């Protein structure tokens, strides 16, 4: 899935259409607000971000993406204003993987997308399995005893932390800062709510996530 944030609807529609006929799944957003709400439900493989947007601008969105451990490694291509050396430099300094100077051709866009995806592809598939739970880090999928389950982005990130560190006890504070990002200002109860839904979705493997009274949570590893 590729997310495309562009406020000009004619350009956005053309971009999304071109990506789809090129074999990608794609979704367009007119501004940062719509984009962030979609980010809560699905993590895209790549994001194309226009610099000039109403409300939150593209460079600010880029900065927020890079600041979070959850979204920090998603490849981003910035669409910069024509001839704006400044935009280009700021975009690359801000951690963009590439940029497209407006106006750009649709075929150029597709070849840049492919090049960035090739360059940023995980070096090896990372599949972790414990107690019936299998997490595929390259495909972002989880199954329990062979049955695929559908997790939200946060639930997935919590499970990934547990699976990568079996037996390690995570406090709510550590989970909050690792999964939600250090600038998250909500309550630690948020963690409990997500652990609850994660356990339910993991079904028979749900009790693998153990509560460590007064401390936090850990993935129980049975021999
Ligand atoms: Ca724009």
Kindly describe this structure.
With 223 residues, the chain is α/β, with parallel strands linked by helices. The chain has 2 domains: 119 residues, Rossmann fold, CATH 3.40.50.2300; 93 residues, Winged helix-like DNA-binding domain superfamily/Winged helix DNA-binding domain (Arc Repressor Mutant, subunit A, Orthogonal Bundle). It has 8 helices and 12 strands. The strands form 3 sheets. It has a 5-stranded parallel sheet, with helices on both faces. The two termini are 38 Å apart. The mean pLDDT is 90. Calcium ion binds next to loops.
Number of helices: 8
Low-confidence stretches: none
> In terms of structural class, how would the helical and strand content be classed?
alpha/beta
User: What is the CATH topology descriptor of the largest domain?
Assistant: Rossmann fold
- Our count of domains comes out at 2
- Give the mean pLDDT: 90
Query: For the record, what is the CATH homologous superfamily label of the largest domain?
Result: Response regulator
Q: Name every ligand kind in the structure.
A: calcium ion
CATH architecture of the largest domain: 3-Layer(aba) Sandwich
Number of strands: 12
Shape estimate: elongated
The level of helicity is: 25-40%
CATH class of the largest domain: Alpha Beta
- In which order are the strands of the major sheet placed? 2-1-3-4-5
Radius of gyration: 19 Å
Largest sheet: 5 strands, parallel
Order of helices and strands: EHEHEHEHEHEEEEHEHHEE
Strand content: 15-25%
Distance between the termini: 38 Å
């Amino acid at each position: 899935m590729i997310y495309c944030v562009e406020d000009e609807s004619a350009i956005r529609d053309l971009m999304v259409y071109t990506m789809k006929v090129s074999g990608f799944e794609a979704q367009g957003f007119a501004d940062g607000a719509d984009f962030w709400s979609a980010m809560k439900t699905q993590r895209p493989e790549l994001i194309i971000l226009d610099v000039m947007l109403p409300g939150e601008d593209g460079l600010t969105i880029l900065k927020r993406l890079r600041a979070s451990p959850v979204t920090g490694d998603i490849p981003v291509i910035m669409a910069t204003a024509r001839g704006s050396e400044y935009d280009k430099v700021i975009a690359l300094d801000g951690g963009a993987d590439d940029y497209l100077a407006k106006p750009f051709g649709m075929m150029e866009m597709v070849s840049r997308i492919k090049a960035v995806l090739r360059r940023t592809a995980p070096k090896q598939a990372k599949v972790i399995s414990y107690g019936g739970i299998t997490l595929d880090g390259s495909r972002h999928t989880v199954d329990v005893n062979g049955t695929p389950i559908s997790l939200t982005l946060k639930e997935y990130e919590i499970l990934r932390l547990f699976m990568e560190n079996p037996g390690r006890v995570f406090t709510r504070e550590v989970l909050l800062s690792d999964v939600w990002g250090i600038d998250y200002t909500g309550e630690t109860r948020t963690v409990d709510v997500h652990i609850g839904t994660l356990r339910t979705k993991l079904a028979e493997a749900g009790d693998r996530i153990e509560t460590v009274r007064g401390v936090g949570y850990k993935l129980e590893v049975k021999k």
